[in-house]
């Protein structure tokens, strides 16, 4: 799917696969695309604005197990 901002001409490319939810799944939710410089900690979470100044530096690393 290709979307274009009518004011700026900016193009947004979105890869979508539309499928019905199976009988044992909860109904699927609609997609909402919001332009901006924010991101959420996880999908569906509240967005937080990015700070121009970082006050702390994260030095720890995370690892994921392959279950």
TrEMBL record:
<protein>
    <submittedName>
        <fullName>Uncharacterized protein</fullName>
    </submittedName>
</protein>
<dbReference type="InterPro" id="IPR021844">
    <property type="entry name" value="Integr_conj_element_PFL4704"/>
</dbReference>
<feature type="region of interest" description="Disordered">
    <location>
        <begin position="23"/>
        <end position="67"/>
    </location>
</feature>
<feature type="compositionally biased region" description="Basic and acidic residues">
    <location>
        <begin position="57"/>
        <end position="67"/>
    </location>
</feature>
<dbReference type="Pfam" id="PF11920">
    <property type="entry name" value="DUF3438"/>
</dbReference>
